[in-house]
Amino acid sequence: MIYAGIAGTGSYLPEKVLTNHDLERMVDTSDAWIRERTGIGKRHIAAEGETTCDLAEAAARSAMAQAHVRGEDIDLIIVATTTPDRVFPSTACLLQERLGNHGCTAFDVQAVCTGFVYAMGIADKFIRSGSHRCALVVGAETLSRIIDWTDRTTCVLFGDGAGAVVLKAQDEPGIIATHLHADGAYKDLLTVPAGISQGYGAMQGKEAFIQMRGNEVFRVAVNTLGQIVDETLQKNGLDQADIDWLVPHQANIRIINATARKLGLSTDHVVQTVEDHGNTSAASIPLALDVAVRDGRIKRGNKLLLEAFGGGFTWGSALITY
Ligand code: ACO
Description:
Peroxisomal Thiolase, Chain A, domain 1
């Protein structure tokens, strides 16, 4: 049997930091409110002219260095992003060119905050099929570009960043299983309503920015993530105690804690970066993973449960032996 295993991780955060106190000067909010409701203390914001591909490249190079992989060794590049540099070519193709790779499979995945888990699921299937042996999977976002900075209900939540993993074919299970879901019936609860085929005109106003019914999103997210945890454990014959680390999408500390409770995991087995990164959508899981790999918390052989929930709605999990 062929499996996909994580050979390297990397991440990148833009230099500029926006604290809750900075936001207090921009909208009617407070550090205390943001911390209490979300757990967020600060987030990173891309510089003017700094694009999603710039962030993706830095994260990718770091993951490739850890995996001892060169651009030409990669035969699959998937970038999960909601904020691509261009309508086309895909950010994956832009990244491929920068990495000096010519000819490999390269495409973007759009599943908003669940994008990285979707991309891992797709890459896993490519590698298991035997058609590809070395995949670069990136989650990268410049969400600051689709935020209405006058809307206090959304602008305090999000940040920019990128994370990446290199997956290689191996004999032992690395990625054990992925479980991916979506339900478009929830399309209006969390959305940027503007879109290309509606015409560029629609992209100038408020419709070009994130709109969210936060309360309702929160309720569905907590329920759905509880279900995906159950589904992942049941379908793979595992018990809560088998999970060493929960690496959740970093949207809100209250959502993360609810999922950890569901797993019976104490918070010291949960990777939490939302305080420092905010919600970086598709980038948040690989960013969190890289932080915990590099600080030595996540060790080889550990069982990881990655889970995410986002616009669509989309949701999913990846069960991995690191
Ligand atoms: N600062 C101060 N007050 C605020 C702010 C703010 N930034 N934003 C809203 N308020 C006010 C509201 O106006 C409301 O005031 P009112 O009672 O006078 O009407 C009050 O605070 C409470 O607002 P709620 O929306 O009920 O606050 P809630 O406890 O639900 O927290 C939050 C809001 C943090 C957005 C929460 O609903 C949440 O986290 N939802 C999930 C969002 C999420 O995770 N989205 C992303 C998931 S998918 C993805 O990652 C893209």
